[in-house]
Amino acid sequence: MSGYEVVIKRCLLCIAILLLTCSCAMFPQTAGKTEPKVALVLGGGSAKGFAHVGVLRVLEREKIPIHMIVGTSVGSLIGGIYASNPDSFQLEWAAFKIARGDILDYSITSSKMGPVQGARLETFVEQNAKVKLVEATKIPFYPVATDLNTGETVTLEKGSLAKAIHASSAIPGIFVPVSFGNRTLVDGGVTSNIACDVARAKGANVIIAVNLQKDVRDTDITSVIDVIAQSISIMMHVNTRSKLAQADVVIEPDTKGISMFDFSRKKTLMEEGMKATEAALPRIRSLTGR
């Protein structure tokens, strides 16, 4: 090879290196691109919460990352069990086992503050969650409750997972209020059924919210428990509107005609959760890059 050819090759190599350096300087975002922090916010709705199982099944199947779960009422029950062990098939198995009696343990002796004690709910969580403490879940988990004395929305970040879920799910007038630390707590749905603000405060920049209260019509109201449950459902429906405005994606499974304590429609609700999540996947993928 002649000296002239060597010089030409060296010049070409220098030009290539220069072009590569310029391209890196012009497009630095491609090298340092960070994955968005995704929060799944699960709302309340008692038995309608079986739809949350279907939502999680699709998100897991599609490998959509979940960096935190914020749950209110039944959203804390389903979300807490999943956060402790992110396996939708195990969650589905647990959901199919749960019966009305596992949630509503009526007692005459506790009827002064509410006919349902909630001890069975805690037992169910202890038997199906893989950890005992809120702060020990594999996916960071934030159950939301309401302080009965002050009206504050309370995020429970430490302590017994079973008791925190119980507090978040303690429908006032039905469940006995829960003593947690120095607070007396009831259902988080009283003040924040879809706690998108909690997710944002914890650093989420993509919020996927699941609303079970789009349609609250119920014609099967035959007891005082049904009256209280439906009244709470209507209240949650109203206070959810402003919270949903903070979500990047809203998933609303069709729960029309299913009452809050109807445990006979599990399969239907799970399927509706899957269907609604599949419809939202294009938007979810555009935000998460998946």
Q: Descriptors for this entry?
A:
eight-stranded mixed beta sheet
Helical content class: 40-55%
For the record, give the distance between the C-alpha atoms at the N and C termini, rounded to a whole number: 51 Å
- Largest β-sheet summary: 8 strands, mixed
Succession of helices and strands = HEHEHHHEEHEEHEHEH
The overall average pLDDT, rounded, is 87
Structural class: alpha/beta
Which term fits the overall shape? globular
Instruction: Give the total of beta strands.
Output: 8
Poorly predicted parts: 16-31
Discrete helix count? 9
Task: Please state roughly what percent of the residues sit in beta strands, choosing from under 5%, 5-15%, 15-25%, 25-35%, 35-45% or over 45%.
Answer: 5-15%
Rg: 24 Å
Question: Can you give a write-up of this model?
Answer:
This protein is of the alpha/beta class and about 290 residues long. It is about 45% helix and about 10% strand. Strands 1, 2, 3, 4, 5, 6, 7 and 8 form an eight-stranded mixed β-sheet that branches. Helix 2 (about 50-60) links the parallel strand 1 (about 40) and strand 2 (about 70).
